[in-house]
């Protein structure tokens, strides 16, 4: 409902009219003229008639406020006119003007409801007074009606606004029983007013949230100290259907009139102990949609959608915890790396759809072999990992791995085709084969790789000799250190387009390493090494410096609207001097802070949320913009997001890929777009490779895009050329 209820709009004028219309009926023209002269005033319109029929005609067609009726008229009496007026429901004030011999009829005219009578020949002052009085009374009466109807209207308006409110609004008495609920209770939860008034609030609270609800619903405090935004679930009528999640804010209500002594006594006390408490007033906001979006996003962050198994992130979390426990209790744990043999063949022969069904069945069989404390995860593709805590001996793990192989040996039936599978499993054990989750996973992977090389379908345990790959990392580490000193790292720039305007709004700085032997290396090969070894801060300083210098050059070249985005590692964020280093880089190249955007990932929030939020605030205060990179793939909590003063969310490539068929139904993309809108954040989609992605995103209302469809990351000179071309001819 968007219209006002009937009669509410447009509002009535306060006093209908300041003008009044007077009808003067007398058969003698002389008298008419005399009276007219007597009572004429600005704002009074005076109509005159010499007989009854004319008078009736006027009354039938025009609104008249006051009539001065002569009793005796040529065609009828003044009384007849009054009777006819009454018959047609006209309420006109009447002053009867009568000669002495008509006193009786004048008196019956009063009985008929005439306001007053004036005897002829009249005394001018008396007639004038009578008319003035009649009109004054009329004015007061009108004003009264006006006030009353305004009051009614304002009450109706308030009630209307309260009923139309998207929030649940209610009051409770001292006993916690509803005394008022707005319409929203009915529309959202299905309860009518009658069903709730007089009932205790607990009737609508979800049973698991009763404790929390008690706190908010029994609120006696007022002002700042009253409870606000307490999250809880409330039932829908009939108890079925998913409960609705609301945030509730409530305040205590106090009687307005209290004796002065009471007031004085109370002034010292906190409000909850004051007298005159009459109940509570509360407002509940439905946040079910936000809740669903939040759950969806965090589900995607932790679970694999195809199999419903935990994903890499959740697995690493659990593994980290299990390692901490094993350390404390001096126990062992095992990590298994499972890779199906020849899965690619199955996928290529039977197609992706059946490939996926097959993977689901494999996951199901593996899952049935688990103990409660084990965690099975799908890393992606046909790779699974298992965490087995509390090992009695390393052999235990090998035995369990054997069980997995056996479980897979029975054939699978996928849409009438019989498929068979074997797997290669590698094992590593804490603390023997690694001290942290990265080492354990990598070593289990190496062990699996050996099994593959030695003929597949078997189990292998990690051995130290397997770690020749490990040596690559050690080598790279040394080389990276040197490369940083010799400034062999370069920064490339990838444009981010605002497609509705066709212009480049931002350019992301991406680091590249020109390795003398291995050629150009992508960050995936070396950034993690930098992070593990602490070289990252030198790397970040270098990238930040290059990016600010480049931004300065572009600004000089007149690319005033372009921003540069720089990726920030969680390790950078931990440094206490991080914000200073950013400020210094900006100052060194004399570029404005708002030309720089820092891309952080949600991971920066894992360690110390408050410190991270604090840093983000400082950066924002400097003027630097902040975006959240790879949104939805990491640890996600909208609760934090609301507290973070960030500007932008970047949708990760994996979600853009969900739009592959030009399909705009991806629930996760919808959820992310909804979140960005809800929080008023700018949104950028990454990994836009195909026109279908661009078009689907446009349809969903996301207009800022980055991806190979527009351009890969370019060396600085090329990037400048690109900006020039786009300035000369923006994308159509
Ligand atoms: P990111 O920040 O999400 O950067 C986007 C990555 O996606 C870049 O990979 C880019 O080349 C790639 N990309 C862009 N468009 C497309 C597309 O349409 N399709 C596909 N498949 N990929 C696309 P790159 O340069 O390899 O960087 C990978 C990641 O390494 C970055 O992801 C970022 O997290 C990190 N990184 C890059 N430079 C730095 C840096 O200077 N410092 C830090 N700490 N991390 C960096
Ligand atoms: Mg990035
Ligand atoms: Mg990204």
List the helices and strands and how they pair.
Elements: E1 20-25, H1 29-39, E2 44-49, H2 52-61, E3 66-70, H3 78-87, E4 93-99, H4 103-111, E5 116-120, H5 124-164, E6 168-172, E7 178-181, H6 184-189, H7 193-196, H8 210-217, E8 230-234, E9 244-254, H9 260-267, E10 277-286, H10 288-302, H11 312-329, E11 332-340, H12 343-368, E12 375-380, E13 383-391, H13 394-409, E14 412-414, E15 417-419, E16 423-430, H14 437-453, E17 459-461, H15 468-485, E18 489-498, E19 503-515, E20 519-521, H16 523-533, H17 536-556, E21 563-567, H18 570-574, H19 578-588, E22 596-600, H20 604-607, H21 609-622, E23 625-631, H22 638-643, E24 648-651, H23 653-657, H24 667-679, E25 682-685, H25 691-699, E26 704-706, H26 716-728
Parallel strand pairs: 1-2, 1-3, 3-4, 4-5, 16-17, 19-21, 21-22, 22-23, 23-24, 24-25, 25-26
Antiparallel strand pairs: 6-7, 6-10, 8-9, 9-10, 11-13, 11-16, 12-13, 14-15, 18-19, 18-26, 19-20
Bound molecules: ligand C2E and magnesium ion (2 copies).
Q: Total number of helical segments?
A: 26
Low-confidence stretches: 1-16
Biggest pleated-sheet summary: 8 strands, mixed, barrel
Shape: elongated
- Taking all Cα atoms into account, the compactness measure Rg is 42 Å
Chain-averaged pLDDT: 86
**Portion of residues in helices?**
40-55%
Portion of residues in beta strands equals 15-25%
> Which ions and ligands are bound to the chains?
ligand C2E, magnesium ion
Number of strands: 26
Task: Give the N-terminus to C-terminus distance in angstroms.
Answer: 41 Å
Oligomer: single chain
Major β-sheet strand ordering: 18-19-21-22-23-24-25-26
